[in-house]
Amino acid sequence: MDSDRVSSIIGQRVRQYRLNQDLTQEDLATLANVSLNAVKSAEGGKSTLPTYVAILQALGHIDNLLAAFPDEGVSPVQLLKSSTKQKKRASGKTRVKPADNEELDW
């Protein structure tokens, strides 16, 4: 799935959260302390992370965003390798393949 599609889905969900709470875009802008244009952009899938954070906090859905980034902690393998030190940098030896076009389940 490409980034434009993901952004569009996020915008649709923000809009639905707002409508489910029977809020106008103006009401949400006031609650989130952002501009009306920021709310419109967010619902259109064209916003910044800080704006989405403010809007989702105002809507009571910030946990949905945090769920996308669970805390993995330190891997057991890394703990064995370092024994006492927590990894602070990547070695750059692992090569990343492009992501598959899979549907998001959230």
UniProtKB/TrEMBL annotation:
Return the protein name. Predicted transcriptional regulator, HTH-type
Q: PROSITE patterns in the record, alphabetically?
A: HTH_CROC1
InterPro entries (alphabetical): Cro/C1-type_HTH, Lambda_DNA-bd_dom_sf
What Pfam families has UniProt attached to this entry?
Answer: HTH_31 (PF13560)
**Transmembrane feature ranges:** none
Residues in HTH cro/C1-type domain copies? 14-65
Basic residues bias locations: 84-96
Task: For the region Disordered, give the residue spans.
Answer: 80-106
Highest taxon, organism lineage:
Bacteria
**SUPFAM superfamilies per UniProt:** lambda repressor-like DNA-binding domains (SSF47413)
GO MF annotation list: DNA binding
